[in-house]
Amino acid sequence: MTVYQDLNNKLDELIVYRNLLQDEIIQKLLQIINDPTNRSFVFDYTAKLIAQAEALGLSGNLFKNYLCYLIAQDENTFSQLTEQSNGQIGPSLMNAVIHDMGIIHDLLHFDFTELLPQHLLENYIPTDTNRNPEIVSLNMQLPSQVLQQSPPNEMAELLLQYYTSYGYGPMASFRAFRWQDESGLTGIRHFDPITLTDIVGYEHQKSTLIANTEAFINKKPANNVLLIGARGTGKSSSVKALANTYFSRGLRLVEITKQQMCHLPKIMEILRRRAGKRFIIFLDDLSFEEFEVEYKFLKSVIEGGVEAKPDNVLIYATSNRRHLIKETWSDRNGDSDEIHRFDSVHEKISLSDRFGITITYLAPNQEEYLQIIEELARKNQLDLSPAQLKQEAIRWELSHSGRSGRTAQQFIHYMLGQ
Predict the structure, then answer these.
(1) pLDDT number for residue 344
(2) Partners of residue 124 on adjacent β-strands
(3) What are the CA-CA distances from residue 24 to residues 47, 49, 102, 209, 372 (Å)?
(4) What are phi and psi for residue 173, nearest 5 degrees?
């Protein structure tokens, strides 16, 4: 039996990671192992591997990094139970994983020099290194450890830690998701990299948001949050920054639109099955006109429906309206035709009442606005004297839509462009 046949037979003994054998590139590699003389197999494999490297942003030894990518993404009994149980895996399952890691260890360190064009597949540099930043980050965390000459039991332990922290599949690769009616949860490939330190001011608001989110991540009681206030003050940015801050601790953001609220029960059921992760459903710029009834789905999900909201899900919403649903003077003055008019008033304010925490972001006064300008100018190394910076910032504010963090950021962008 040749070394190639021996490797082929070993791969056929995979148990937990048997899904790897269904991957197109792995199948091409098996064709090469079975028939080393067929050069068309070699170049077909090389072409597909390079295409995946460019699509995913993989670099270095392409086969090894691609194999680690497959392992990290693989949805199997081990990855599922590790995430769900927070790493509490039975010894028998762990032994099966160690068995597979012995086979994968041999595959990772097999010498393919005689079979493959290594000069094309070693030390590879993709055209766009930022094409998929989440997957690039993922492949910096796992292969650097797995690719070392670690014994199978240590490789299994590394994967246990990895799945516990990041999960598997898209949940391990993306900080945030959007809901697509056709395909379900879809990872946001180029998510806003903003952090909480990028949001100048609003320290009390941020500390309240952080405290509630950390309680949620630590599986302590936490509340749904409504962030209200003036436009451009950082409400949405604060929520997005949480996904970047707590990604490694299992927090993921799921953004849905007002029109998609009818899918909330289905989304909740999907998230309930990923019990090892904590999810914030993000509703941005939320408000309803009187004729819009989608808010009833949200009320039912938050509190009041027959099915309880999953323990691993919270809802964070931003709005410029305190009560979310448009109110009219006729509601309060009794000018409408409705007999029980106070029932209508209570119906309209009951939605915002179901958020346990309301955080208000007020528009900054001039002193606070100039402090934001100064901090952003310092971070962006804008070379202006304090007097000139203040003069230009006030002039910008007067010719634009008032004072806000957004206006301040737009001013800094303008000055940098000059």
Answers:
(1) 47
(2) 60
(3) 12, 10, 22, 45, 52
(4) -105, -25
Backbone angles phi, psi at 205, to 5 degrees: -60, -45
Q: Among residues 298, 254, 257, which one has the least CA distance to residue 277?
A: 254
Comparing 157 with 288, which gets the higher pLDDT? 157
The C-alpha atoms of residue 135 and residue 146 are separated, in whole angstroms, by 16
In Å, what is the CA distance from 337 to each residue of 43, 325, 328, 334, 378?
77, 19, 13, 8, 58
The DSSP bridge pattern shows strands 251-255 and 278-283 to be parallel
Query: What is d(CA 393, CA 280) in angstroms, rounded to the nearest whole number?
Result: 36
Phi/psi-derived region of residue 337, left when phi > 0, alpha when psi is between -120 and 50, beta in every other case:
alpha
Please provide the distance, in angstroms rounded to a whole number, between the alpha carbons at the two ends of the chain.
Answer: 71
Report pLDDT digits (tens) over 180-221. Answer: 888 888 988 888 888 898 888 889 999 999 999 999 999 999
pLDDT tens per residue across span 342-354: 444 445 556 666 7
Asked if 83 contacts 274 with a C-beta cutoff of 8 angstroms, the reply is: yes
From 267, 238, 270, 273, select the one nearest 255 (Cα to Cα).
267
Class of domain 186-360: alpha beta
Other CB atoms within 10 A of residue 398 CB: 8
Residue type, 406: R
Mean pLDDT in residue range 218-232: 89
The CB density around residue 46, as the number of other CB atoms within 10 Å, is 19
Pure H helices in 233-363 = 235-245, 264-272, 295-302, 329-333, 341-353
Task: Supply the DSSP string of 279-299, one letter for each residue.
Answer: EEEEE-S--B-TT--THHHHH
- 298-323 confidence digits (pLDDT tens): 766 676 555 567 889 999 988 876 66
Structural domain boundaries of the chain?
3-172, 186-360, 366-417
Instruction: Locate the DSSP E strands across 47-112.
Output: none
Tokens of 43: 């170049």
137-166 pLDDT tens trace: 555 556 555 656 678 898 898 889 888 888
Residue of 170, 173, 175, 169 lying closest to 252 (CA atoms) = 175
* Residues 223, 229: Cα–Cα separation, whole Å: 19
Nearest-angstrom CA–CA distance, 322 and 320? 7
Beta-carbon contacts of 61 under 8 Å, excluding residues fewer than 6 positions away, are 121, 122, 123, 124, 147
Selection from 200, 136, 205 nearest residue 174 by Cα: 136
